[in-house]
């Protein structure tokens, strides 16, 4: 996601931004805001978390409440000692929803009523008095995975599969959000057209999410059971509360209808990732989220991944599909904290570089 940085008033570099401790190794505060919990952690420049906690979002409520709590957490942990002296050198914030990348206001977000249309970057700088960055949570997670893989100036997409389908994008080493904060809306990419295209939750038709988002998958599963001769119709376990995990369990038990629906899901996903690949040509695409059908190290997850790869290769130029590494994400729930902190670090470095340039070329 596109990010930006603002220095606190009077500060020209991270080193001069008034740490709460004596000089030490730079450390960055990552804050990952969700509808249920706010996660926060102190992360060093290599992406290692030295301390972390989470608080219910309904307790902290507003951006001001979250930032004040997070700064107290950071100051307290650094003062207690984390095995070595650290200096808080920047703060990164990851938020869900549509983040305007020019004003850093959330245009749309679910379950965060006190956060809509607030100038998040300004409030963050005011409360934290450090170089700061605000980034969409999908891009924060993608940036963390990108850093873990040491991809440098290469590009990565992190596709998150669940009720919706999101995608964090890092292009040539920088998070990419787009001008309207909507880059990476892979779930709303059209993969089917015409009268047969399934309606999407957004009001349009034929979007990936209506085929490969969890509700779309379960809907296809119901249809498949109804049509499959000998299946005995829609089974009792399949209802609106059925999880992707249950679907995977039945597939693992040899249910042919479940297996076929998972294969078709891989096909739809492979087509959409193929389109993404043609556009961005990333070195790596990772799959994460709740609907990876067991994921890494499982037979079903591997089958799903291989079918996704096959469909990517079938629908892309050889040079794109052949070289693209497709695998499962590995960072899980910590990716938002780490990514937010590392984006703050990237911004602090860019700020230092531009200050140095200005001094050399006044
Ligand atoms: Zn849609």
UniProtKB/TrEMBL annotation:
Name assigned to this protein: Glucokinase
UniProt family annotation: Belongs to the ROK (NagC/XylR) family.
Species classification: Bacteria, Pseudomonadati, Planctomycetota, Planctomycetia, Pirellulales
Database matches in InterPro entries: ATPase_NBD, ROK, ROK_cs
Superkingdom of origin: Bacteria
Region described as Disordered: 1-22
């Amino acid at each position: 996601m596109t990010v930006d940085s603002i220095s606190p008033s009077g500060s020209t570099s991270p080193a001069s931004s008034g740490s709460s401790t004596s000089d030490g190794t730079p450390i960055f505060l990552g804050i990952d805001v969700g509808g249920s919990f706010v996660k926060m952690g102190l992360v060093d420049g290599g992406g290692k978390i030295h301390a972390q906690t989470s608080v219910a979002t309904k307790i902290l409520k507003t951006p001001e409440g979250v930032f004040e709590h997070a700064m107290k957490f950071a100051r307290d942990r650094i003062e207690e000692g984390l095995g070595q002296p650290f200096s808080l050198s920047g703060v990164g914030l990851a938020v869900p929803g549509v983040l305007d990348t020019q004003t850093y206001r959330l245009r749309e977000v679910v379950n965060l009523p006190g956060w809509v249309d607030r100038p998040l970057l300004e409030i963050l700088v005011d409360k934290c008095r450090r170089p700061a960055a605000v980034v969409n949570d999908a891009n924060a997670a993608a940036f963390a995975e990108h850093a873990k893989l040491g991809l440098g100036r290469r590009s990565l997409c992190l596709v998150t599969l669940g009720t919706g389908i999101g995608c964090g994008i890092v292009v040539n080493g920088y998070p990419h959000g787009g001008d309207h904060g909507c880059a990476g809306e892979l779930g709303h990419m059209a993969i089917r057209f015409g009268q047969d295209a399934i309606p999407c939750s957004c009001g349009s038709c034929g979007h990936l999410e209506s085929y490969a988002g969890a509700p779309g998958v379960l809907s296809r599963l119901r249809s498949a059971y109804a049509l499959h001769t000998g299946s005995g119709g829609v089974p009792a376990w399949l209802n609106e509360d059925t999880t992707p995990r249950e679907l995977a369990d039945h597939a693992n038990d040899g249910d042919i209808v479940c297996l076929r629906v998972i294969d078709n899901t891989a096909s739809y996903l492979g087509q959409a990732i193929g389109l993404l690949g043609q556009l961005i040509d990333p070195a790596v695409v990772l799959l994460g989220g709740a609907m990876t059908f067991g994921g890494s190290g499982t037979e079903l997850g591997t089958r799903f991944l291989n079918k996704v790869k096959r469909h990517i290769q079938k629908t892309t130029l050889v040079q794109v599909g052949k070289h693209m590494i497709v695998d499962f994400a590995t960072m899980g729930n910590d990716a938002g904290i780490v990514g937010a902190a590392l984006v703050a670090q990237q911004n602090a470095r860019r700020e230092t570089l531009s200050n140095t340039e200005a001094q050399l070329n006044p």
